[in-house]
Amino acid sequence: MTQTISASIRPAKRTAGITYAVRDIVSVAHEAAKTGKEMLYLNIGDPNKFDFTTPPHLIEAVLKAMRDNHNGYSASHGVPSAVDAVEREAGRNGIKNIRSVFLTTGGSEAIELCLTALVDRGESVLIPHPGYPLYDAVLAKLEAKALPYLLDEQNGWRPDVEDIRKKLDGKVRAIVLINPNNPTGTVYDRETLREILALAAEHGVLVFADEIYDKMLFDGKEHVSIASLDPEAPVVTFNGLSKGFLAPGWRIGWGVVSGSQALLKDYIPALDKLLRARICASHPMQHAVAAALDGEKEFIKSTREKLTRRRDITFEMLNSAEGISCVKPEAAFYAFPRLDIAGADEDFVKGLIRETGVVTVHGSGFGEKPGTKHLRVVFLPTEDVLRKAYAKLLEYLKKHRK
Fold first, then answer.
1. CATH number for the domain including 175?
2. What's the CA gap between 352 and 389, in Å, rounded?
3. Does residue 1 lie within any of the structural domains?
4. Which of 24, 177, 389, 394 has its Cα between 20 and 30 A from that of 262?
């Protein structure tokens, strides 16, 4: 006999604090699109949605792997060719004392696994504000605390080292660095990185270094892997094929654990348990890793050239009117302009979508200094689309600025 359920299924309490601004704003855009309005999307950090394509030699590597029947499970850490290629790349970036290399389903799985292996309920992780909202979401699921430290807009969005110092206490287990940064496009200098490493060592915390945008640099900027600055410092460095190699849908990322064996001797086995439990990353896609890291990279130059022109349009137009100002991005494909408006930035973004069809993401979804208001734009679209979208944004701003 079938019984009728009289009450709705209660979800886990841990889901209550999970938000993801980048995707959460999409429902508003869908409603605006139904009205027939021309939509101009500046919210999607996916190069392949625009005029960027995955390099052919990566595609050929995957097709060959499929034809060679590499379609079953792989080893939990990844196929040897991929693991070896990631280790070589880490060495080229100056990283020594590599203790573990593992392939994951995108950089996001690497982040989630590494946080899960480290943090217990009630403990804290220092994360940048503004920063990638996945860290907040994962820590909410783990019933741990995402403790924000500020990036200093007046100093080109570099980390406020004194703010980090003030917030380090006995419950902090790790410091997260996103370098180059999403959503500001800032590249961190060696001096700042050294200061953060010194604080991490003083307080015995792990450093998570998210370096997924390290190939997308402008104006001759140098990217420095923080793990390269001290071979004894315990660091997990994240990267992948999604951004620099223009293959986000393949969902191939990786982590490199480096530093003192004595300090990492308990953490690595805990991480290995999680890697084994989730089986493996996509097997055939892993065969693109060696082709990407060891193969031809001419496409990176052309990608940077296109993005530099689009960055320049973004910087020029978003500093051309009252009520908005923008620090010049040094890498990636994001800008994080500041708004001088009366209401909340989330309300501004929703109104912008409904009235103009221009889709951005509210700055509060990435974290921001209290009392400030921002939005994140993605400058991946073509130059004509960017000019049209920014013109509409600035016209809308006229009616809403203070």
1. 3.40.640.10
2. 11
3. no
4. 177
Based on the domain organization, do 71 and 176 belong to the same domain? yes
- Pair of tokens at residue 286: 């892993």
Neighbouring CB atoms inside 10 A of 75's CB total 17
244 within a domain of the structure (yes/no): yes
**Cβ(217)–Cβ(180) under 8 Å?**
yes
Q: Is residue 378 part of a domain?
A: yes
Q: With contact defined as beta carbons under 8 Å apart, do 267 and 116 qualify?
A: no
Q: Name residues whose C-beta falls within 8 Å of residue 339's C-beta, 6 or more positions apart in sequence.
A: 323, 324, 345, 348, 363, 373, 374, 375, 397, 401
Decide: residue 5, CB within 10 A, 0-12 exposed, 13-18 middle, 19+ buried. exposed
Q: Return the pLDDT at 164.
A: 98
Whole-number pLDDT of residue 102 = 98
- Please give the residue range of the domain that contains residue 188: 56-294
Dihedral Cα 389, 329, 302, 360, nearest 10 deg: -30
Measure the CA–CA gap between 214 and 199, rounded to whole angstroms. Answer: 24
Please name the residue that has the structure tokens 């490199």.
Answer: 256
- On whether the CB atoms of residues 140 and 17 are closer than 8 A, the answer is yes
162/206 same-domain check:
yes
> What are the residues whose beta carbons fall under 8 Å from the beta carbon of 375, sequence distance 6 or more?
336, 337, 339, 345, 348, 349, 360, 361, 362, 363
Position 17 scores a pLDDT of 73
Whether residue 6 lies inside any domain: the answer is no
CATH code of residue 26 = 3.90.1150.10
Structure confidence at residue 252 (pLDDT) = 98
Distance (Å, rounded) from C-alpha 137 to C-alpha 18?
Answer: 5
Classified as helix, coil or strand, 58 is helix
CB 146 within 8 A of CB 127: yes
Same structural domain for residues 145 and 258?
A: yes
- 164 and 274 housed in the same domain: yes
Which residues fall within 8 angstroms of residue 212, CB to CB, at 6 or more apart? 107, 182, 238, 239, 240, 242, 243, 244, 253
- Residues of the chain short of pLDDT 50, as ranges, are none
Residue carrying the six token digits 């849908």: 249
Residue where one domain finishes, among candidates 294, 325, 358: 294
